[in-house]
């Protein structure tokens, strides 16, 4: 396919594409394609893994680890791809009584195809509490301030271990996966390698599917995918995301009470 594409664009002068891509070559290529490793989706994080991130975000002595663990928790509870989270332009905290909600927005995400969508901010919201008494959301924001990231243009920059400082580039999905496995190594041992940055978005969506709290439309909206007929008035609605956080709070209460046990489902 690549050769045919290049030939259509550049018009090879010294190679006959028909001779190169003979029936034997294309047949062998097809056989090799069928033998490639099957695509497998990253599993959702178990509750124990999310608790590990929460403990690190709240109790770790190194601010950069608290920041990274907090960013993972934000991606988990906002059901955001790590790649999209790295393009967040605004982040702030809202709290009332014991409820903490983190709100963010980005114009660059996987569903921003048109010129109009690229100039409008997509809202992300995440409930800043899980199973610990203290809010991981508040700890995350405090760690960002302590790390000098409060006014930084990047949500989470790459961490330079040698210089022990943040870099000028966003943290890649590969680096995020390395941090995930490092955080989970003590708890899961070799099993930590099963998880990656792609596990973030799948976690709460998987939990939501185990209950009757969410309708099909709400689960779709929770993953930032909506029906075409409601796209214009729901995609960029902050209120629609806040209402979903109310149900996520109920979901967490079910996990806390033991009525919902995602790890044994």
Any descriptors?
265 residues; mainly alpha; three-stranded antiparallel β-sheet; two-stranded antiparallel sheet; 12 helices; 12% strand; globular
Provide a short characterization of the protein structure.
It is built from 12 helices and 5 strands.
Explain what the structure shows.
With 265 residues, this protein is mainly alpha-helical. It contains twelve helices and five strands. The protein has helices at residues 2-10, 17-20, 23-34, 47-59, 63-77, 82-85, 136-146, 173-188, 199-208, 216-222, 231-234, 238-257, and strands at residues 90-96, 99-106, 122-127, 157-160, 165-170. A three-stranded antiparallel sheet has the order 1-2-3. The longest helix is centred in the C-terminal third of the chain and has 20 residues, at 238-257. The chain starts with a helix and ends in an 8-residue tail after the last helix. Mean pLDDT is 84; it is low at 112-120 and 230-236.
């Amino acid at each position: 396919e690549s050769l045919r594409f290049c030939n259509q664009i550049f018009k090879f002068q010294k190679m006959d594409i028909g001779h190169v891509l003979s029936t034997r070559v294309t047949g062998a290529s097809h056989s090799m394609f069928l033998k490639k490793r099957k695509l497998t989706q990253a599993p959702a994080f178990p509750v124990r893994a999310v608790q590990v991130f929460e403990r690190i975000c709240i109790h770790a002595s190194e601010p950069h680890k608290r920041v990274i663990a907090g960013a993972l928790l934000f991606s988990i509870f906002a059901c955001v791809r790590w790649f999209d989270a790295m393009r967040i332009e605004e982040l702030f905290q809202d709290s009332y009584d014991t409820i903490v909600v983190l709100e963010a927005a980005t114009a660059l995400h996987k569903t921003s195809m048109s010129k109009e969508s690229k100039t409008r901010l997509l809202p992300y919201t995440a409930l800043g509490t899980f199973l610990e008494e203290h809010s991981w959301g508040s700890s995350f924001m405090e760690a960002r301030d302590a790390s000098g990231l409060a006014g930084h243009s990047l949500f989470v920059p790459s961490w330079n271990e040698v210089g022990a400082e943040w870099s000028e580039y966003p943290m890649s999905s590969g680096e995020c996966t390395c941090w995930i496995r490092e955080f989970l190594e003590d708890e899961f041992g070799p099993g930590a390698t099963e998880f990656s940055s792609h596990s973030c978005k799948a976690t709460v969506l998987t939990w939501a599917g185990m209950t009757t709290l969410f309708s099909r439309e709400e689960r779709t909206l929770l993953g930032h995918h909506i029906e075409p007929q409601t796209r214009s008035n729901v995609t960029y609605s902050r209120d629609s995301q806040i209402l979903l956080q109310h149900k996520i709070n109920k979901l967490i209460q079910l996990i806390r009470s033991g009525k919902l046990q995602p790890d044994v489902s």
